[in-house]
Amino acid sequence: MHLPARWRTVVSATTAAIAVAALSAGSAAAETGPSPGGCPHVPTVQPFAPWQDVADYILAPDGDFEAGASSWQLDGASIVEGNDTLPVGASSDHQTLSVPAGASATSAPMCIGVEHRTMRFLGSGAQSGTLLVEALYAKANGKQKSIALGAVRGTGAWAPSPVLPMRVNDEAGDDNAMSVSLRFSARGGAGWQVDDVYVDPYRTK
What is the spatial distance between Cα 201 and Cα 114, in angstroms, rounded to a whole number? Predict the structure, then answer.
C-alpha cells in the first residue's frame, strides 16, 4: 500500500515515538527493579567475604551479643566472655552466646520481607552435636509457627555456618513485612557457642 508523503512522515514519527517510549519504560524497569520491601532500610556489610561469600548482610538484633543478649530469650543459654576466633565483627568484641546441650536461645523479633532470603552465623560445636536453627513467626490467623532452617553439624572449631534459607520470607503478606525470631537449639548431647548472626536482604543492583 502506498501512502501519501505526509502520512508516511506521520507514521514514521509515531513508530519512532512508540519505540522510544518502550525503550524508556524498559530502562526504567531495569533501573527500578522489584519494588522495595516493607522493612526499614538497614546498612549492609559483607562479614563473610573472607570465605568468598560477598553477599550483603544485616546483623540480627544484638546478633554479635555485645549488648549481652538482653533482647534475647535464653532457655539454659548464657552470654560468656571471649569472642570467636574468626575475622568478623569489631576487634573490641568480647562476648559470645553459649548454648549447652538441651538449651536454646531465641532472638528478638526482626522485620523480614520477601527479599530476606538467607541467614548465616559463626558457630563452634563438637562434631558429635548439631545446632538446630528455626524461624518463629505468626501466621495471618495469629497461630504461632516454627519452621526449621537447618541443622548445622559441629566441626570442633569456630567456622561459618552454611548459608541457610530463610524459608518464611514468602509469607510476608501484602505489606511485605513480617515479624520473625531465630531460635538456636543444641542437640545431640553437645553444647555450642554462637556469634555474629546475620541475615541477607537480597537486593537487585
Answer: 9
The grid coordinates of residue 57 equal 548482610
- 8 Å CB contact between 57 and 199: yes
For 26-84, write each residue's pLDDT tens digit: 333 333 333 455 899 889 999 999 999 999 999 999 999 999 999 999 999 999 999 99
Identify whether the C-beta of residue 73 lies closer than 8 Å to the C-beta of residue 106: yes
Give the pTM: 0.79
User: Domains of the chain: which residue ranges?
Assistant: 1-33, 49-201
What is the grid cell recorded at 169? 520470607
Which residues have CB under 8 Å from 201's CB, separation 6+?
37, 39, 42, 44, 56, 57, 58, 113, 115, 116
- Show the low-confidence residues of the chain (pLDDT under 50): 1-35, 204-205
Q: Which fold has domain 49-201?
A: Jelly Rolls (2.60.120)
Which three cell numbers mark 187?
542437640
Nine-digit cell string for 121: 552465623
How far apart CA 177 and CA 201 sit, in angstroms, is: 12
CB–CB of 59/198 below 8 Å?
Answer: yes
Cα–Cα distance measured from residue 81 to residue 75, given in angstroms and rounded to the nearest whole number: 18
CA 100 to chain centre: 25
Long-range pairs of 30-33 with CB within 8 A, sequence gap ≥ 24: 33/204
